[in-house]
Amino acid sequence: MASLAPTSTDDRPLLEIRDVSVALKTGKRTMVSGVSLDIRPREVFGIVGESGSGKTLLTRTLLGLQDDAFVESGRVRFNGEELPVAGYAGRARKLLGHSIGFVPQDPFSSLNPSMRIGKQITEAIYLAKGWPMGAERTREAAISLMAEVGIPEPALAFNQFPDQFSGGMRQRIVFAIALAQDPKLLVADEPTTALDAITQRRVIELILDRSRRHGLAVILISHNLELLRQSVGRIAVLYGGQLLNVVASGDIGRSTVHPYAEALFDCIPTREKTLADIRSIPGEPVGAGFGLRGCAFASRCPYVVTACTTTDLPRNGGLTPSFSACILGRGAP
User: Fold this and answer.
1) Are 237 and 223 in contact (CB under 8 A)?
2) How many CB atoms sit inside 10 A of residue 99's CB?
């Protein structure tokens, strides 16, 4: 079930990203250019794009986790606090494990294979709250979290190792670790990669349920537009390192959106489509690093005109709830 618009009565964004560009440290090549977004308290927000679009690079850099990239320019504010570009990564990492929880793509690689699950969760509780790892209340809190995220027989699972669990259960364990930190924002990067369709849906429903119960804002990152369309309130669409669209999930497939978002939707099977309705995007994908002069999607766009390749891309400088970077105005509010 799709999450509707933010439910908070507080109009201040929890996370404000204004005109942010991300560059690689080697060569200082700009990979993601001029992105402006805001995430509201308790909002479930999606970021979508093909592989190489820059969505994971942007997000990991904003969290201070991308060792080979840095915030080159722009402004980032979290919960009212400015994170200056100078020394940005260190400041951002201090928020991880406290105000921001992170669920990575591969849960197995983020879990210590030689450490019991219970110890990994109690360690997260210790780092977030200072409770001694061996204390009974810490153990009880860890077992309670494991039960909350749907791990069967959590008291028994407490003493087991990661390789004794399925991929879906490992994803739930990583989610329990993130919740142990009582974050205001949960960032889930491709949390359903390599999971079957039924397990994917269960993991997403788990995240949405805990968002409602804990008042969490959530950013879901995925290449799966249909999964996001069914799960979030708004979606940011990235391609070639450019922000091309911010759109209400319910508008995709029903209203005019940016041509790239439209093309992505045309690729995916839905209950409403016949086989003839499903079309691939012509041409070769463009990776991150395209820049801001011209639209990265121009070479594959059915509506392209000369201005699409020569005009500076519009930016979402006003942090509007919906935005289209289409030079022709397609999908603009």
Assistant:
1) no
2) 17
Q: Which two tokens stand for residue 305?
A: 């005109």
Task: With a cut of 50, say whether residue 7 has pLDDT above it.
Answer: no
**Taking the C-alpha atoms of 159, 208, 234 and 57 in order, what is their torsion angle to the nearest 10 degrees?**
0
Q: What is the Rg, in whole angstroms, of the alpha carbon atoms belonging to the chain?
A: 20
3-class SS at 116?
coil
| pLDDT at 282 > cutoff 70 | yes
Tell me how far apart the alpha carbons of residues 228 and 3 are, in angstroms, rounded to a whole number.
10
The closest of 258, 224, 128 to 182, measured between CA atoms, is 128
For residue 39, the 8-state DSSP code is E
Chain position carrying tokens 């210590």 = 112
Give CA–CA dist 172/124, Å, rounded.
Answer: 15
Spatial separation of the C-alpha atoms in residues 218 and 13, rounded to whole Å: 13
Q: Residue 22: CB partners within 8 Å, gap ≥ 6?
A: 30, 31, 32, 54, 57, 58, 61, 66, 69, 70, 71, 72, 241
Question: What crossing angle do the helices spanning 136-148 and 117-129 adopt, rounded to 10°?
Answer: 110
pTM over 0.85, yes/no: yes
Kind plus residue range of the DSSP H or E element containing 31: strand 30-39
Amino acid at 102: F
Contact 165, 173 (CB under 8 A): yes
* Burial status of residue 315 (CB atoms within 10 A of its CB: 0-12, 13-18, 19 or more): middle
Q: Tell me which residue of 152, 145, 131 sits closest to 177, measured CA to CA.
A: 145
